Amino acid sequence: xxxxxxxxxxxxxxxxxxxxxxxxxxxxxxxxxxxxxxxxxxxxxxxxxxxxxxxxxxxxxxxxxxxxxxxxxxxxxxxxxxxxxxxxxxxxxxxxxxxxxxxxxxxxxxxxxxxxxxxxxxxxxxxxxxxxxxxxxxxxxxxxxxxxxxxxxxxxxxxxxxxxxxxxxxxxxxxxxxxxxxxxxxxxxxxxxxxxxxxxxxxxxxxxxxxxxxxxxxxxxxxxxxxxxxxxxxxxxxxxxxxxxxxxxxxxxxxxxxxxxxxxxxxxxxxxxxxxxxxxxxxxxxxxxxxxxxxxxxxxxxxxxxxxxxxxxxxxxxxxxxxxxxxxxxxxxxxxxxxxxxxxxxxxxxxxxxxxxxxxxxxxx
Length: 365
Ligand SMILES: [Zn+2]
Ligand SMILES: [Zn+2]
Hints:
Blueprint: H1 2-23, H2 31-50, H3 53-68, H4 73-97, H5 106-127, H6 138-144, E1 171-173, E2 178-180, E3 185-187, E4 192-194, H7 199-230, E5 237-238, E6 247-248, H8 251-261, H9 263-292, H10 296-321, H11 327-349, H12 355-364
Antiparallel strand pairs: 1-2, 3-4, 5-6
Helix pairs in contact: 1-2, 1-9, 4-9, 5-7, 7-9, 8-9, 9-12, 10-11
This protein binds zinc ion (2 copies).
One zinc ion (ZN) binds next to strand 4.
């Protein structure tokens, strides 16, 4: 049973790392971008080369089903994790370690309140429409989102499925099969798109779960710290299997002892700490996009356009440095480069108006 919990802890840490690497920009430099390219481009390509045909088909079908169809599996998994984890926490944490001289009994009620609030916000983000564009409201959205930069958004672009002229900042989601205003991304955790109308609930969802995880970690920390001090776990000697002499206590051995004795509660606290860190990084990532005034979809598109422009600039630089280039050719290439830098500015300046103003606008929607 302990091995099962240890494996689950490692799986959660691994899954959290994968999730965060997914958010990194593959077109940039640095370790995060390198890992993104490694896990999402190079390794899948290697897998396709080496694996047998039927395995590739099976994995492909499973991946498509999980990521590109509107199924409730992830929602069920989310509820199982949150409600199951909460029950375990109440039974093994509050049940076995309360009343506690370091923590007030009020935490017992507070834990119910915070979990209830987090589940309520989850219900909201799942049920509030992201801002679906229909023939009835198309005029409203076209008036509201009418800045076309010619790069990310082109004027008079018709959605082939919805048969509507798409307003700027909108996108057709092929999973939900609708056009969404100020499209951010399709979220499998909530089984719908995140767009203009439910983005604030999505932010509240990340923040509330982040706070819930850190709160659970805080309670867990004081409970185990109390056990360590009250039971004098750092001062006693331990008899370890395979060793004849007793070993003097250390933090590492004391933590192992606590994990062995209170496995389920220790497990939930570790998972909460890992998830708290993951969610806070994800929350900061979204705050950085609010400051930049872009959605997740726009950040990805912007990065791709900038990467393409950068490649063109590099090509021009190579041509300039080549031997035998005439003065006229050089001047023409420099002019081309200047034009490209102007395009850079267009991509960079779109939608920027500051964190506070952007946040205020999001909260009003
Ligand atoms: Zn559409
Ligand atoms: Zn969608």
